[in-house]
């Protein structure tokens, strides 16, 4: 069975951001599944995901750690990092990710990047 809507996971400890991203992704034709923490996502499992958007600065497992865990479990899964802390953005910590967005990010830019990353991973698959 082929699912028609790509599944995008969003991990962020800011509930307002989760809501707005969920709305944005759903309106663009994706299925969004939102988690308030990295462990929430890991408990849920990665099997149905097509793309991950995660905040970097979170309590517990941060976005870099989550990316590393996800990449070892699902090397093909595109991962986007977001942060409101600009110093992190400048540390070159964005290596090994498909997209990097500073908050507040531009919704159309994010959707274009998501679309491109999904197309790329589909072409590989």
Automatic annotation (TrEMBL):
Source organism, top-level taxon: Bacteria
Response regulatory domain span: 7-118
Pfam family, one: Response_reg
Keyword Phosphoprotein: yes
Modified residues (4-aspartylphosphate): 55
Keywords: Phosphoprotein, Plasmid
Keyword Transmembrane helix set for record: no
Biological processes, Gene Ontology terms: phosphorelay signal transduction system
Gene3D superfamilies in the record: 3.40.50.2300
Record protein name field: Two-component response regulator protein
The species this protein was found in: Rhizobium meliloti (strain 1021)
Organism classification: Bacteria, Pseudomonadati, Pseudomonadota, Alphaproteobacteria, Hyphomicrobiales
